Amino acid sequence: MARLAQVATARQAQLQDGRRLGFAQFGDADGKPVIAFHDLWGNRNMRHPDDAILARLGIRLIGVDRPGYGMSTRKNGRSLMDVVDDVMLLSKALKLDQFAVLGFSAGGPYALACAYRFPQIATRCAVVAPLPPMDHAQGFRALHPLYGRLFQMAGGNETFFRLLMRGFIWFDGQRSADQYIRELGGLLSPADQSVLRNINVFNSRREIWEEIRSGGSDNLVDEMVALTKPWGFRLQSIRVPVDIWWGEADVFCAPGVGERMAGMIPNATFRLEPQAGHFMLYSHWQSILQRLVAN
Questions:
Q1: Pairing mode, if any, of strands 242-247 and 122-128?
Q2: What is the 3-class SS of 58-110, one letter each residue?
Q3: For residue range 27-64, what is the model confidence (pLDDT) as tens digits?
Q4: Residues 65, 66, 68, 72: is their CA dihedral positive or negative?
Q5: Are 195 and 277 in contact (CB under 8 A)?
Q6: What distance in Å separates the CA atoms of residue 239 and residue 169, rounded to the nearest whole number?
Q7: Which one, of 50, 27, 43, lies nearest residue 283 by Cα?
Q8: What are residue 205's phi and psi, to 5 degrees?
């Protein structure tokens, strides 16, 4: 694939098995590459709405749709490592010798998997409020009760869970996406509600949710099922430097989870930020990226 001439234009890459992988680039076309793994309710466009920050930091941000999301073809029974392999093929197509990885929430495990799988290529890893391993009950209990229960159902009776999620997407499609984003904010902390009051952040999350629900529920179920299975590696085996960022006011997943994860990764730093919530990816965007691409 030829080098992209226009930054911030969504494209697709052809994979070896015939599937297509959607991605988008933002920031400095000649900058330091950072591959971003979006959250459960995200897509390739996940980022702070002020792209001038990327330009100032000299960062070429590459957001990637996981299989079934946005512009990417679905892959039945996919695992974390399947996604990492897709991203590595994309990096080769883009002629990236090295890159940093960033993962937010449900994207965190994928960023960690990439750091584990390709320690010679991934220069550094930053994960923001990452989901913990959920192949055991303790992982479910660490989440907000609503989401913990959803993931528990995904890891249990998948057939029933698919029916449940189809009903949810149908119901949600009867109302505006604005209403869903407001209800989501109501589940989170005042710090997160403050982030969502930024009209540009709110509009970005709304547009992402509109794309997700237009594609149906199967990709969401695929994602949640994959995250309840063993990741395929041990945190202790990661050799790339890792920054784990957490907001002290995060009610989606307890900060203690991040501290425990950091204790397992040999070269990890745990950064707990007061007055920040789950959406600290937006409130601390510049600080997270500055550290990620620092020499």
A1: parallel
A2: CEEEEEECCCCCCCCCCCCCCCHHHHHHHHHHHHHHCCCCCEEEEEEHHHHHH
A3: 999 999 999 999 999 999 999 999 999 999 999 999 99
A4: positive
A5: yes
A6: 40
A7: 50
A8: -65, -35
H helices of the chain, in order, are 52-57, 80-93, 108-117, 137-141, 145-154, 158-172, 177-187, 190-196, 199-214, 218-227, 255-264, 280-283, 285-293
Q: What is the DSSP letter of 130?
A: P
The 10 Å Cβ neighbour count of residue 2 is 7
Handedness of CA 158, 163, 165, 166 (dihedral sign): positive
pLDDT tens for 176-194 read 888 888 888 888 889 999 9
The rounded distance, in Å, linking the Cα atoms of 235 and 217 is 30
Distance linking the first and last C-alpha atoms of the chain: 29
Find the radius of gyration of the CA atoms of the chain: 18
Q: How many CB atoms lie within 10 A of CB 295?
A: 4
